[in-house]
Amino acid sequence: MTAETSQTLDRGLRVLKLLAETDHGLTVTELATRLGVNRTVVYRLLATLEQHELVRRDIGGRARVGLGVLRLGRQVHPLVREAALPALRALAEDVGATAHLTLVDGAEALAVAVVEPTWTDYHVAYRAGFRHPLDRGAAGRAILAARAGEVDNPGYALTHGELETGASGAAAPLLGVSGIEGSVGVVMLTDAVPHRVGPRVMEAAKEVADALR
Predict the structure, then answer these.
(1) CA of 26: how far to CAs of 13, 30, 64, in Å?
(2) Is the same domain home to 36 and 91?
(3) Alpha-carbon Rg of the chain, whole angstroms?
(4) Is the domain of 38 the same as that of 97?
(5) Three-state DSSP class for 99?
(6) Residue 115: in which H helix or E strand, if any?
(7) Do 43 and 119 reside in the same domain of the chain?
(8) What dihedral do alpha carbons 50, 109, 24, 18 form, nearest 10°?
(9) What is the dihedral of CA 7, 12, 17, 21, to 10 degrees?
(10) Which helix (H) or strand (E) holds 167?
(11) 108-115 vs 131-133, strand pairing mode
(12) What is the rounded end-to-end Cα distance, in angstroms, of the chain?
């Protein structure tokens, strides 16, 4: 801590980070131990965070991340979309397919940015806001592969007909971006994704990740 920072704010943010890293919540005692402070301090921090709906406590008294965090998270999407658009435009024009940035939203994959190619006679209509299960479609499968640490070879996911009949997809996960799970991909009307598309999607995913760091 330096003279320019707030110890209380720092502790509150650390509480949110600790709660975000667990699925089952933490007790006041557990938080106090991890923060290295007494229980009274933790009670005050939780009470303040609860007022802003950033934390909630269940019947058993365990603290969990609150819905207010989700509302804050949704405001991040426009910033992420803006950062990703240059790489998505280049990808769409290069391979002649609809390019998209997809992020995890709960148990679903959510398309937050979509760019369609300008020079093709036809392409797949794919809209920002489109949702699908994480275990269906190239975008979700790429995210799950990254989550499981299985993206070494070939580094991207390929699917056909899982979300739309006759459409194929390729997607690569965003790697090394703190706090964001997502992927960059393309969807095209073809029976098989051309060989060069997978590596090109990986390149675009790296460009987006670099822009978000």
Answers:
(1) 15, 6, 7
(2) no
(3) 20
(4) no
(5) strand
(6) strand 108-115
(7) no
(8) -60
(9) 130
(10) strand 167-173
(11) antiparallel
(12) 23
pLDDT 10s per residue in the chain (213 long)? Answer: 566 779 999 999 999 999 988 878 999 999 999 999 999 999 999 999 999 999 999 888 999 988 788 677 667 788 889 999 999 999 999 999 999 999 988 789 999 999 999 999 988 888 898 999 999 999 999 999 998 887 767 899 999 999 999 999 999 999 988 778 899 999 999 999 999 999 999 999 999 999 988
Same structural domain for residues 126 and 146? yes
| Domain residue limits at 59 | 5-64
pTM: 0.71
Tokens of 156: 């991207």
Looking up tokens 């390019």 gives 99
* Residue given tokens 């706090």 in the structure block: 179
Structure tokens at 154: 């070939």
Counted domains in the chain: 2
